[in-house]
Specification:
The chain is α/β, with parallel strands linked by helices. It has helices spanning 9-13, 21-25, 61-73, 91-104, 125-133, 146-152, 162-178, 197-206, 224-251, 257-260, 265-275, 321-338, 352-355, 362-365, 369-386; strands at 29-32, 35-36, 57-58, 79-82, 113-118, 136-141, 187-191, 211-216, 263-264, 289-292, 297-299, 313-314, 318-319. It has an eleven-stranded mixed sheet. It has a two-stranded antiparallel ribbon with strand order 2-3.
Length: 387
């Protein structure tokens, strides 16, 4: 059986395998761990440098062909999101896969989309131009200034490559501008005890940046100390978000923010969802997307690739229907519980994978209120924006 560390699935489930290909073909988004390895050793990395404590890997030709066949048969525009490990460790293989993907779907040229999240260290100007020529969106992981980056993002030799990353980032921006490409988010930053939302805002404002996305460093365990530190990080984020939201509500109006907004993507999306009267809920694993690793193992989400409870099957064999239904029940039960944190309609979506572990303990449940507080800040600032 192909795959990584999760192997004997028949014994594990006690049932046969059903090729539920319709469940695969209907999704429009795939999260792809094309490379399960990384050249950096970020202190906060939840993927153990792309490998989830398993073997390093690059998606082989057989797994690529199986995935391409599914994509070829999907009769809707699809979104491919590459991440988990550092995809550009296998730049040529990735480029060949994208060429094959686009050749297999000529009717969807200009409708399909491809995005790669990268640390930016392995790119150069020539590679960036090849990506832009193929319409591949690149999202750079940059946590802020050189001091913050040096603390959090180092390679195996202790180097940070901050200057090179920013050079690549600037060249990418100039390339997409010259090509007339509009890309909402081009940077994602991780908040730890060493930086803050205000720090990230100031850094990108000084560089003339527009939209950036921010994620909080998630606790490695649900122990009392880790959760207390995480609550402190959440509180600093909430204070900064409230200040930024109020400041930007005075800076923009209800129409101008759609075209000119600069700042955290989470705030922009919240305002936009309220403007369009969209109510966001759980991010939608199984409903909206699947994830696949370089060994061909299928999961509901890339963040669950190290959890055997959420293994669904393989590209080779299809989905195990009993596992699919079990995971569906887990997600459905979670969504029912989380609704109390999203009363009155949420302005921002919640992440099932991040919240799920916290719902397992009474102590952890209180941290779900973080999303309610984020929504209140966004809703209150939106009312000011409209006034």
């Amino acid at each position: 059986m192909p795959g990584g560390k999760n192997t004997d699935r028949n014994q594990e489930t006690g049932t046969g395998i059903v090729k539920r290909m319709s469940q695969i073909l209907r999704v429009q988004k795939w999260q792809i761990a094309f490379v399960m390895n990384c050249n950096l050793r970020c202190a906060y990395c939840y993927t153990s440098h792309g490998r989830f404590d398993g073997p390093a890997g690059v998606m082989g030709r057989r797994q690529q062909q199986l995935l391409l066949e599914i994509l070829r048969k999907t009769e809707e525009p699809v979104f491919l999101e590459f991440g988990t490990g550092e995809t550009f460790l296998a730049f040529d293989e990735f480029l060949a896969f994208i060429d094959a993907f686009q050749a297999a779907r000529p009717d969807y040229a200009g409708k399909d989309s491809v995005s790669v999240t990268t640390n930016g260290t392995l790119l150069d100007h020539g590679k960036i131009e090849k990506l832009v020529q193929r319409g591949v969106s690149v999202v750079f992981s940059i946590d802020g200034n050189k001091l913050v980056h040096r603390t959090q993002r180092k390679d195996v030799n202790g180097k940070t490559h901050h200057r090179k990353i920013l050079s690549n980032y600037d060249h990418y921006l100039s390339c997409i501008k010259a090509a007339g490409i509009v890309q909402n988010t081009t940077v994602v930053s991780v908040l730890t005890g060493g930086n803050s939302l205000a720090d990230v805002e100031n850094f990108w404002k000084e560089r003339g940046g527009k939209l950036y996305s921010v994620t909080l460093e998630w606790p490695q365990n649900t122990g009392e100390k880790a959760l207390k530190e995480f609550q402190g990080l959440q509180n600093r984020y909430l204070a900064d978000l409230e200040n930024l939201a109020n400041e930007k509500a005075r800076q923009y109006n209800v129409l101008s923010f759609l075209d000119d907004f600069s700042g955290p993507m989470e705030l922009f999306e919240g305002w936009r969802n309220l403007f369009l009267d969209r109510k966001k809920q759980c991010c939608g694993p199984l409903r909206n997307f699947f994830a696949v690793n370089s060994f061909g193992d299928i999961y509901p989400c890339e963040l669950l690739m190290d959890d055997p409870r959420f293994l669904l099957g393989t590209l080779e064999e299809g989905i195990h229907i009993d596992l699919y239904e079990k995971v569906s029940r887990i997600i459905h039960d979670f969504e029912k519980k989380e609704r109390r944190y999203l009363e009155n309609g949420a302005a921002v979506s919640t992440c099932f994978v991040q919240l799920f572990p916290l719902f397992q303990t009474e102590q952890g449940r209180q941290y779900g209120s973080f999303f309610t507080k984020v929504n209140h800040i966004i809703r209150n600032s939106y009312e000011e924006l409209c006034s």
